[in-house]
Amino acid sequence: MILDKIKDLLTTKLISRRSFLKSSAASGIALLGLTGCASEEEEIKTVEVITEEPVLKEEAPAQTVAPREKGTISRQTCPRNCYDTCSILSEVKDGRITHITGDPTNPITAGGLCAKMNHYLSWVYHADRVLYPMKRVGAKGEGKFEQITWDEALETIATKTKESVDKYGPETVLKYYFSGTLGFVHNYGMPHAFFNKVGASELATTVCSETGGATVPYTHGKNLGVDPEEIPNTKLYVSWGASEATTNVHGVKFIKQCKENGGKVVVINPIRTGVATFADMFIQIKPGTDGALALGVINYIIENNLQDQDYIDAYTIGYDELKTAVKEYTLEKVSEITGVPIEQIETFAKMYGEIKPSILRTGDGLQRNSNGSSMVRAITLLPPLVGTLGAGANSGYYYGTGGYWAPDAGPLTGKELLENPNRRTINMNELGKALTGGLETTKELPISTLMVFNSNPMAITQHGKLVREGLAREDLFTVVAEIFRTDTADYADILLPATTFFECEDVHQDYFGLYVRHNSPAIEPLGECKSNGDIFNAIAKKMGYTEPIFDMTNTEAVKACLQSETLVSQGITYDRLKENGWAKIAIDVPFGDKKFLTPSGKVEFYSEKLKEVGFHPVAEYVPTAESKDGSPELFEKYPLTLMTPHTKNLINSQMYNIAQIKDLMGEPVVYIHTDDASKRGIVDGDKVNVLNDRGSIVLIAKLTSTITKKGTVLSFSCPWPKLVEGGKSINEITSDRLSDMAGGSTYHTNLVQVTK
Amino acid sequence: MAQLGFLLDQRYCIGCQGCETACQARNEAPVGISLRTADSFEYKESAPFLTVSCSHCEEPACVATCPVKAISKNPENGIVKTDYEICIGCKACIAVCPYGAPKYSEDKKVSMKCDFCADRQAAGENPACVDGCPVKVLTFGEVESLGGEKSTEGFEYSEKTKPAFRFIKK
Q1: Which of A109, A279, A424, A742 is deepest in the core (most CB within 10 A)?
Q2: How are beta strands A687-692 and A603-604 bridged, if at all?
Q3: A303 has pLDDT over 50
Q4: Which residue among B25, B47, B73 sits closest to A121, beta carbon to beta carbon?
């Protein structure tokens, strides 16, 4: 009320500039501080005093606006593990990037970056960048380092690596990397030549989408997604276990366009996603039960004769077995398992059977479960059942477009240097076990040297307690190439300064659409930073390796990646990519020829191959290993399913150290349904413990009645442990159990309790 | 040119906050300051989502109030802009703005405010927030031709100041 009075005074009475010369501002500012520092009485009196002698306000000086001065443009590609892989235009003045924006001409990026990456300049010029090689001078994990020369760093690494190889054997050297950058050169390419020459253990990089990726071919023969730029042209878009607003925000405009063109949008997810807020139907399903829903929908479609019988007869095998297998998945049973109301299942099944063309998209989230493969298998049966697979460019199935990746990093990896093709493979999801002798193979032959690049396992790897114990081993020699001093870097014996993508050349392809994208360096490497490729070439040389591959420059490496058949035949050359920044790969309609690379050459509703690897040959509902049905005893103790998906504010563990992003995101929270919270006496903002047998972390409770359902709690993955209270991040309590196919991760198969 | 304004299509705004951080980056806003504040779909329980900056009112209270005349309204395009060289950081504009659009920066000792990216517009570019919207639901143009409604949940049209902000409601 008082504030309103002040507003009135100020708007109706004019104030003389003379009362407010800048030199006497101090008192004036305080007096007009209005928002409650001094007593309100006093402030009002003061305002009246000031406005006692109103003087006609002089005109403010006319606005003179000079056009923004642009720098020299160079083209990058956002190299993060994100569907979109945006094309960036950066402007450079005097060797410094002054401005970045999304490339307006690229149809996916279309001019804008995203909430997190708009702050890239605060990231690249962050005061905490690792700019020089360093050696550890404190205890492991303590984070005390001293600057050394590159020569000393390389000498130490070479000496220790040779010692590992000579004393314990080459397989005791382990590389750990994943997707800090997804470049063909600096992630998939150059660094691996060194490890192949050493004969180091291979790393199975199966943390992300492998479970689903390995499953889809059992049904369709190959994992070929539709071009997502066709989403606007389809009539029904089904988002199943995907969170486009978080992990693919540039895809949301296509879904919007689908609706604008009269299409329908259905979202199936345990979490109320961004797209769910404008979907025609949102099915909020119990986590890990999607397989049952798919089978129930199939059953309904068949019972109501909504299947495309002509398509089934011509292009599929095993329809009779399918019919039999899904019979038990009645609406009642499926509703009971999934928590989805019967009417909603019916409505969706009817929509999916009747509205064509449609695109059914599976996200990566749902397959990060102990039953991930069985769920994806059930879902992949739907498009051929209604005849949408291969029916047109705007029709069918979408589980990413990684199947169309055209650049080839093979020539960079020095496979020919590998002496022992049977070297052991360590699954990255089991790093904690591997380092602590928890695997049979590492019990026998412990890892002696660990080299980490493009990753921060202390933040992203499951069962954090084991990872920490492993990294703390005094007999482990650890090298980390990093941009920042992450939690993992704090355990390094030698810490090497890596460039950001603004400082080195690479080539990329997004896995949302079909764009090959070049990354030119915008600036020189900061400090003494080197690209990953150059770092491992330098180590190789110090080791005494003389093969010509270790002389390869970044530019040569990019050019070598572009020699693939697809790129050459489509005229996508280095010069063209460098000039424009990106080029679109032309594809045929996926499965348009109705040729399916299965054993039968048809879509397989019944798969003998699947049976051979221990699965139901059609599909079945398997509860997750941590759930009421899957582990009743564990459920008694830990009755809440914890999901740990990505947040739109971070890209995996990256960006939380950027002050603006931390401010935007706030402290990590656990979302808990109001019913589950009140049962536990928890109110919004309470500090709570989230725990299971793997460990316990402290989070702030955020109560919700929409974002999660009763029984499901949610915390976003994952800020660096050292940046959050208690020094433990969410992966302290996620499971390192492997999925049911291809050794995938099972982050979302996780029962916990939440206590005050 | 007539009065410029923003148009937000709330039917499809998902609260991704791309507009907000694009604005922060363009303005080199000190940490904690957003000259455009957007709802987050990760925090707000349900749609519609809103994103608000200075609405470049047709009759801006801030211009009338600023004791040192640091804020002016461009007669050609209606952009309301603060001259930070003149601003003394007295916060009067914050108090009178019905939408609390200006933000006081302790670092810079001025009240910061959206200037519709006047320099970008002069260079033929869109405002940073408009470009920064990945869903393409935030647009701008002459307010008369934007269409849409003048008020929405969380934003009441002020007859006194006449904000140049329109909504396609959910």
Answers
A1: A109
A2: unpaired
A3: yes
A4: B25
Position A62 scores a pLDDT of 77
Strand pairing partners for A519? A506
Ramachandran class of A394: left when φ > 0, alpha when ψ lies in -120 to 50, beta otherwise: alpha
Q: Do A22 and B63 touch (CB under 8 A)?
A: no
d(CA A79, CA A184): 10
DSSP string of A664-690, one letter each residue? HH-S-EEEEEHHHHHHTT--TT-EEEE
Q: Between chains, do B24 and A34 touch, taking CB under 8 Å as contact? A: no
Q: What is the mean pLDDT of chain A?
A: 93
CATH code of A221-399+592-612, in short, is 3.40.228.10
Buried/exposed A423-436: b ≥16 CB within 10 Å, e otherwise: bbebbbbbbbbbbb
Are the beta carbons of A453 and A489 closer than 8 angstroms?
A: no
B8 touches chain A (CB under 8 A): no
| Collapsed DSSP state (helix, strand, coil) of residue A587 | coil
Q: Among partner residues A7, A68, A249, which is closest to B18 by beta-carbon distance?
A: A249
Candidates B67, B71, B96; nearest CB to A11: B96
What does the domain layout of chain A look like in residue ranges?
2-119, 134-208+405-508+517-570, 221-399+592-612, 632-755
Q: Do A707 and B42 touch (CB under 8 A)?
A: yes
b/e code A219-236 from CB counts within 10 Å (16+ = b):
bbbebbbbbbbbbbbbbb
Give B7 to chain A, closest Cα distance, Å: 16
Token pair in block for residue A646: 């990505």
Look up the pTM and report it.
0.94
Q: Which residues of A touch B22 (CB under 8 A)?
A: 112-113, 118
Of A67, A115, A707, the CB nearest to B18: A115
Interchain proximity B122–A116, CB inside 8 Å: no
CATH classification (class only), A134-208+405-508+517-570: alpha beta
- Mean pLDDT over B78-99 rounds to 97
CB A304 within 8 A of CB A290: no
Asked whether the predicted pLDDT for residue A682 surpasses 60, the reply is: yes
Q: Where do the structural domains in chain B lie, given as residue ranges?
A: 4-168
From CA A735, how far away is CA A429, in angstroms rounded?
9
Nearest CA in chain A to B33: A660
A632-755: what fold?
A: Barwin-like endoglucanases (2.40.40)
CATH 2.20.25.90, domain A2-119, yes or no: yes
Residue A275, phi then psi, degrees to nearest 5: -65, -30
Is the pLDDT at A40 greater than 80? The verdict is: no
Gap between the Cα atoms of B25 and A118, Å rounded = 6
Q: For A464-490, b where at least 16 C-beta lie within 10 A, e where not — what string?
A: bbbbbebbebeebbbbbbbbbbbbbbb
What's the complex ipTM? 0.98
Put simply, whether B84 touches A (Cβ < 8 Å) is: no
